[in-house]
Amino acid sequence: MTKEMTTKITKTTVFRDGARITRSGKTELIPGEHVIRITGISEYAHDDSFRVKGKGAAILRGIDVKKTSSVFEPSDELKEMKENLEVLEKKRAEITDNIQYQEARAAHLSSIMQQFSAEFGKWFAAGESTMDHLSTMDKTTLKLLSDAKKKQREFREDLEKLDAEIQVLHNNIQRVQGQMRTITTTDVYVAMEVRENTRIELEVTYQIGGAGWNPTYDVDIGENTASVKRIAQIYNRTLEDWEDIELVVSTASAHPVEAVEATPFYVDVYRPYGMGGSGSSNFEGMLATKAIMAEDRDSFADEVDKAYEEEPLVDMTETYAEAIETLGGMVIYDVPGRLDIPSDDDPHPVALTEEKFESRRRHFWNAYAMPEVVAQDEITNGDSVLLPGNVKVYATGDFIGETSLSLIAPREKFRLGTRTAYDVKAEKKLVEKDMEKAGFTRSKRRRGYKYKIELKNFSKDTIEIRVVDRIPYSSSEKIVIDLKTPSLIPKKTELGVIEWETSIESQKELAIEYSFEVEWEKEISIRPPLP
């Protein structure tokens, strides 16, 4: 005997890339063999993930999962939706073409720069070019590459928004598709033996695709503390509405994780292309040369990427989830109360936790590249991992800007809230410049420089500041740079980059003086030219 049971979704556990659904239902049965049919489950449910448990005077014999198709008549809206989809697809093709053009443009610019750098030495030696040409070429190419990278990002943002619109249209078209549109659902059949008149309560759980969540954060930076609010942006595209459910949010992934075995890393002697030898050697040399050019191009493009650093709202009484750490550092958040999350294309924010972390205000100034001092807050994470996500940053309730976090391990330090420090001023001055020290030797030249860095703290508190500057650096034996001991001992000096860490009391000033000399053989030219 087959009997249909009405069930309701009562609990949902949302993973990063999937969900586990719990459905509950009740019915009355008489003694005998029975098959309970549960219908209306989404086609996105994984057939091999169904599990059933229950209460009542019965023996559970087994379960069977089947797909059921239903036919619907077409809708009058279908033609209009298809026309809109065609327009969006054309726009998508145009944006894709623009992205490919900007990628090709960036690659072409990098190739031109590499070729110009390779040929410049010949032109310079022949007196057909000057160092100013190389400097101008570097600046122009970097600006053009920056422009190409920026346009790529803008086009990709447009593409992402357009893809979301196309996905919505696809979903709507699927719901009204065709002359004989077919909708597939999943049915579960539960076989059992009933011993006496009884009330049966069944609970069906299954994994489903089309759901997940992304972490976002609200970080409010105060004095020596930072309030970090975790928010889960939950999406439900399962075709099942979650109404009045218990919600659990998990940092686990529904997909399997693979342990990748090690493989050998082979290296060989570099053989430049065109240096003779067998055809195989020439081919290997050509590949090596192309690899080096690609590395140089990527390094040059990384300089462009570094130019794009970005930085980061709600005041009500809120209840937060209880966080429980499980095996392997995974965390589940048991959200209090009951929620409604419909099946649609919109993210649904759910506040998970709010914690207070230790923070410390730090200042930073790059003397050769930054006009103003910036303030940052160094925050120490708590005992739970912070997953990658977007961040809105506030300073004592005032919105600063938006940024993003990479994966932050428990108790790891990270910095947020980069902003201009208007109460701290810094200036670098050239105190003395010795152009060509005469009478040293006939075969060498020497130049000397003396600089002064002035820092002024106008704030009400003592500040901690890290200052960096640089002097010329060369790996050539023909160029020698001698840094004299600065008035403030640096914390670190590496490859010509000097780093100081110090503190300045309120309404006080600090001066750092340092000098260096550059000595080189007379017959060589220094590139780029010295200041």
Write the layout of secondary structure elements.
Layout: E1 2-5, E2 8-15, E3 18-29, E4 32-42, E5 51-55, E6 58-72, H1 78-125, H2 131-175, E7 181-194, E8 198-208, E9 211-221, E10 225-236, E11 242-250, H3 279-306, E12 322-325, E13 331-341, E14 348-366, E15 374-380, E16 389-395, E17 398-405, E18 413-420, E19 424-434, E20 444-457, E21 463-470, E22 479-483, E23 492-494, E24 497-504, E25 509-521
Parallel strand pairs: 1-4, 2-11, 9-16, 14-21
Antiparallel strand pairs: 2-3, 3-8, 4-7, 5-8, 6-7, 9-10, 10-14, 11-13, 12-13, 14-15, 15-18, 16-17, 19-20, 20-25, 21-24, 22-25, 23-24
Helix pairs in contact: 1-2, 1-3, 2-3
Structural features, described:
Among the domains are: 78-175; 424-521, no CATH class. The chain contains three helices and 25 strands. It has helices spanning 78-125, 131-175, 279-306; strands at 2-5, 8-15, 18-29, 32-42, 51-55, 58-72, 181-194, 198-208, 211-221, 225-236, 242-250, 322-325, 331-341, 348-366, 374-380, 389-395, 398-405, 413-420, 424-434, 444-457, 463-470, 479-483, 492-494, 497-504, 509-521. The strands form four sheets. Strands 9, 10, 14, 15, 16, 17, 18, 21, 23 and 24 form a ten-stranded mixed sheet that branches. Strands 5-8-3-2-11-13-12 form a seven-stranded mixed sheet, with no helix packed on it. The termini are far apart.
List keywords for this structure.
531 residues; alpha+beta; 10-stranded mixed sheet; 7-stranded mixed sheet; 45% strand
Number of helices: 3
Indicate the low-confidence ranges by residue numbers. 273-317
Report how far the terminal alpha carbons are from each other: 94 Å
Q: Which word captures the global form?
A: elongated
Proportion of residues in helical segments: 10-25%
Write down the Rg: 33 Å
Total strand segments: 25
How does the helix and strand content classify structurally? alpha+beta
pLDDT averaged over residues: 81
Give the amount of beta strand, in percent. 35-45%
Order of helices and strands: EEEEEEHHEEEEEHEEEEEEEEEEEEEE
